[in-house]
Design brief:
Oligomer: single chain
Number of strands: 2
Number of helices: 7
Strand order of the largest sheet: 1-2
Distance between the termini: 43 Å
Structural class: mainly alpha
Length: about 230
């Protein structure tokens, strides 16, 4: 963060957020300390989403499977769905790309989609790339979001930390985007290879069929619009 952006951020927090100096710290000192904790993961503090019982690391597909089955499970609103990569199971609320069909953006750079499934995978990949890019820059900017150890903060504080990081990130993208940071994330995404596969259990087969039907409907409609535009 540049000095100009820092002072502008302090001014916004004072003028619109009501931040006031204390006997021990100026506004600038308070903001600087907070940014240091978020950016440097000071005192080995970290964020680990809200699955506090998971130790170490776990795959995304394993975490989402637990989130959908636990007592206080993740609720996907009716008629809504998440776009997920091939490492997840296809469900009515989790739409994966077509397997055995070219997927990565570079595969389409000089060869546009030739059929409905390729068009779906191309647009799926484009959306996924935009999302991973946004989160990649966010996590690179704030070390506290990348920690691999259990958080010392309560769930409410963790939620506020994530929200604070997103707000600061959005502010900086407008006034001090840091093109070098963005370029590093873009390079990582270009070098990524997604070879994860997942197996579907019998209990998931029915929901997977509903997900496949939904994906096929979206794909057919998308292809129709593409051919007639």
């Amino acid at each position: 963060m540049s000095l100009r952006a820092f002072l502008q951020f302090c001014d916004i927090l004072e003028r619109e957020g009501g931040l006031q100096p204390t006997r021990r710290a100026t506004i600038e000192e308070q903001v600087a300390k907070t940014l240091y904790i978020l950016a440097k993961n000071a005192k080995n503090r970290s964020i680990q989403f809200w699955f506090r019982r998971w130790e170490g690391t776990a795959s995304d597909s394993r975490i989402i499977k637990d989130a959908l089955k636990r007592e206080d499970k993740l609720i996907i609103p009716e008629g809504k769905f998440y776009l997920v990569d091939a490492g997840f199971m296809l469900k009515s609320g989790l739409i994966t790309p077509y397997r055995g069909v070219r997927y990565h953006l570079k595969e389409y750079s000089n060869n546009p989609p030739q059929n409905a499934k390729e068009l779906f995978n191309l647009r799926h990949a484009a959306l996924r790339n935009a999302i991973e890019r946004a989160f990649g820059v966010l996590k690179r900017r704030f070390e506290i979001l990348r920690g691999g150890t259990e958080s010392f903060y309560g769930v409410r504080t963790q939620n506020l930390i994530i929200l604070a990081c997103c707000i600061i990130h959005n502010f900086l993208m407008g006034v001090d985007p840091d093109e070098d940071l963005i370029a590093e994330v873009d390079m990582e995404l270009r070098n990524q290879e997604n070879s994860q596969q997942t197996r579907t259990s019998r209990e998931e087969e029915e929901d997977a069929s509903r997900g496949e039907m939904l994906r096929d409907v979206i794909t057919a409609d998308m292809w129709h619009n593409y051919k007639n535009c």
